[in-house]
Amino acid sequence: MSKIDVLPVIMAGGSGTRLWPLSRAGYPKQFLILSGNTSLFQQAADRLATLGAEDIAVSAPLVVGNEEHRFMVLDQLREQHMSPSAVLQGGTDPVLVVAPADQTVTQADAFTTAVQTAIRQAQDGAIVILGITPDRPETGYGYIRGQADGNGLRVEAFVEKPDADTAQRYLDEGSYFWNSGMFVLRASTWIKALQRFRPDIEAATRASFDGRSADGAFVRPAKDAFAQVPSESIDYAVMEHCPGSEFPLRMVPLDAGWNDLGAWEAVWQVAPKDDDGNASRGDAIIADSRNTLVHATSRLVSAVGLDNIVVVETPDAVLVADRSKSQDVKKIVNSLTASQRGEHNLHRKVHRPWGWYDSIDMGERFQVKRIMVKPGASLSLQMHHHRAEHWIVVSGTAEVVNGDKTILLTENQSTYIPLGQVHRLSNPGKVPLEIIEVQSGSYLGEDDIVRYQDTYGRN
Questions:
Q1: Mean pLDDT for the chain overall
Q2: Domains plus CATH for the chain?
Q3: What is the model's pTM?
């Protein structure tokens, strides 16, 4: 018996603004550990890798994400001992299992069983949606109305996010499900449906893909052509038009402890709680409080006398919000963006392809950074117009290009990089390299970098 070829497609491009300040555009929620011991992206990759069966063969995942996150994707897949799939071209027609990267599931076996059922239905041309069995009158999700027939459930309509009374009615009626955003369908079915309902999107996307460039595991659509693709959700563009059309639209119920962790309220819901309904992560002490979430990142956070409150601490920003208003955290992000503040985009600790840096202190004409370089990794060969740098090795071995000299530094050794000097920092060893960098000069912005050579394709 030939097996059904399945290609998992992980959608990892979101910015997670409602989970600020932990989630930021430069390091969004899908790459964070919000539940369990792995990131939401890693959890998604692990779940999809378990879909194989006697009649189902599963390929490595195809990941769709932002270019600036591409090395996070590779690093987190490597931690799970995985590699991504290459973009498929003509000659194959797998069943796609399209899933967002920012969801959590507590019952893995139930998830696997439901998705395998969807795969078997999709192999014959149906479009199958995973509908979440609701357990409360949720107003933050879109809904799907399903109707039983001889083959299970067919989708009759998509419904926008309801008000509280309507959500309660949906729950009571029992024929409404939350829209999980997970779809299962053949690649050829998707192309035909897109050509049928939105030929403009199909044509613009094809033009962008035809002009693509490749760099190792990364495939980049043509940037200018991609910008011309109409911005519209899959639901509006295609799925809402399928009921009653030539494209059968089916639904498989999923009752597996699903949550999309779209806001801090959802994080509280899935977190372990004490007898008073309080949840915490990190170094937190909670007293005389109820139904409160405290997420501490870098220091002790204490809370007294709180009721239904969210407190989230990071090294450079703190959020305090009513749990019922957690969907409105995006208003803070919008305000930060409008005022051109950097806290909406990057953490104090910034991840780079070669490792990370943490800006631990700064003042007029100086900045201090803690820098980690992965084994075998290297920063770009670069120069700064406005700053000099002192480097002190804390652990590991550093190979330093400083002008026309190349030196090795070990623990407690240091060097000085004069302003305008071409330089490079590399880790030739087998363990992470950590240094302290002290910058001094008239301008210390990250854009004061002239790159001459770069392993990671940056300008």
A1: 91
A2: 4-259 (3.90.550.10), 272-338 (no CATH), 349-453 (2.60.120.10)
A3: 0.87
